[in-house]
Amino acid sequence: xxxxxxxxxxxxxxxxxxxxxxxxxxxxxxxxxxxxxxxxxxxxxxxxxxxxxxxxxxxxxxxxxxxxxxxxxxxxxxxxxxxxxxxxxxxxxxxxxxxxxxxxxxxxxxxxxxxxxxxxxxxxxxxxxxxxxxxxxxxxxxxxxxxxxxxxxxxxx
Amino acid sequence: xxxxxxxxxxxxxxxxxxxxxxxxxxxxxxxxxxxxxxxxxxxxxxxxxxxxxxxxxxxxxxxxxxxxxxxxxxxxxxxxxxxxxxxxxxxxxxxxxxxxxxxxxxxxxxxxxxxxxxxxxxxxxxxxxxxxxxxxxxxxxxxxxxxxxxxxxxxxx
DNA sequence: CTTTTAAAGTCAATAATGCTGACTTAATGC
DNA sequence: GCATTAAGTCAGCATTATTGACTTTAAAAG
Lengths: 157, 157
What we know:
2 copies of one chain form a homodimer. By secondary structure, chain A is mainly alpha-helical.
């Protein structure tokens, strides 16, 4: 009966709204900062993942983001031209390009993630360690299985 | 010291990635369904909130969504023209329009939220009741204070 | 060595969703 | 009567995604 209590349609709808509004808050700080650089969320995501997985291949980035090569092209082109991302020819396979943040790119990544981390830290603090565990568990289960596999693949490579 | 343990920059970055990927999964089911109707996320959001707050005013919907009147116009126009939303002249103030879902609109809302609820229910089940509590607490804290106030205002009206 | 495949990059056209500015219409409040 | 408010509209633009059709370069397969 416990299961019934926390699985009512209304509770689920509330959870859905929470996801929507929390995500909105979650992206609001970076969005504001990005405006100063005439960049958008697409640039932020590229910067984030290049930082997290230094030297990753263009194909891996496409795979993570789940977008097409043509969609990424404009964004990546800008970041490279603006000197935030360094695209180096692969050492083993020269067809590949390994992506790295330059110092300038790292600086913007810092600025963006500082704001986002600050918000997350405050939320975590207010909710407490056990809540954070629950938060993470539920989010992991909301993710697509396919996405999880993709992430695992990148982590392994 | 406990606080230090769960507030490392890496843990926070992991949480940020989790939010990104979970939100992606969260929207994937409705996105797929909406394609069959040539609608997008904007239509979904309008349908969701009109269902949750039956009879709400256009201004309230704008307030909740945080978009401009011109942005909502195209979407709402379509939903009304397609017979999913009913716009009724306010009984007290005839300048106002109260929004309701028609039977057709309610049917689409069902289809969309069934898919989303199914995913949430599975995630909640897998994580357990305490995790759900934590999930909710953290998300509430991630939200903007401004957003919370807006929601409260609608709930009161 | 030649052909096929793979990785990256590009150009063009299209779509969804947001924005701003400049309005109109209708109803309310004073 | 006149200013304000709620709703609705038109036009133009930006961002970010899409698909399709290519090219270039390098590796792999035959």
